[in-house]
Design a protein that fits this description.
This protein is of the alpha/beta class. It contains 7 helices and 5 strands, in the order E-H-E-H-H-E-H-E-H-H-E-H. Strands 2-3-1-4-5 form a 5-stranded parallel β-sheet, with helices on both faces. Helix 2 packs across helix 3. It is globular, with a radius of gyration of 15 Å.
């Protein structure tokens, strides 16, 4: 299965993706890690480079029968469609999951107080998060992390996935 996660920076999608990967043994593909590794290698990452690498790695792992969790902002229909194409090319089921934080004050606090966990990675400011292009999405599952511990959000997602 391919789990296509998306959501604005700071909503908790990486924590949810990592928690789910730990519990299930799924492959966790994090765009931020891929893009930072490309930058560290001297590649100018100004477009879809990180996503293109992730699509290829996801496809390889799906062909091996692994579950893949794609962790990215995934802000545009073009990226969402590309993830679906990866699943279709491999004959794999996919589920789209939008992670949100419905409490705007909590979301802002998270963005303004978090620290980068990837060396060299520059986190967006609250203003950048608010101004980010993010097209509306009708994902099959929505996980709201507001007022919840990560374990609770992961459990809620697992419950939704088990019900499919």
């Amino acid at each position: 299965m391919l789990l296509i996660l998306g959501g604005l920076p700071g909503v908790g999608k990486t924590a949810v993706a990592a928690g789910l990967a730990r519990e299930t043994g799924a492959v966790h593909l994090r765009i931020d890690s891929i893009e930072q590794a490309l930058r560290n290698s001297g590649v100018d990452v100004s477009g879809p480079e990180g996503y293109a690498v992730a699509y290829a790695i996801a496809e390889d792992n799906l062909r091996l029968g692994r579950t893949v969790i794609a962790d990215s902002v995934n802000p545009l229909e073009v990226t969402r469609s590309a993830w679906r194409s990866v699943a279709q090319r491999t004959g794999t089921r996919y589920v789209e999951v939008e992670v949100v934080c419905s409490d705007r004050a909590e979301h802002r606090r998270r963005v303004e107080t978090r620290t980068a966990d990837i060396a060299g990675h520059e986190l967006p400011t609250w203003q950048q998060v608010c101004e980010r292009e993010y097209e509306p999405w009708e994902a099959g599952i929505m996980v709201d992390t507001a007022g919840r511990h990560i374990e609770s959000s992961v459990s809620a997602l697992r419950g939704e996935l088990d019900g499919l």
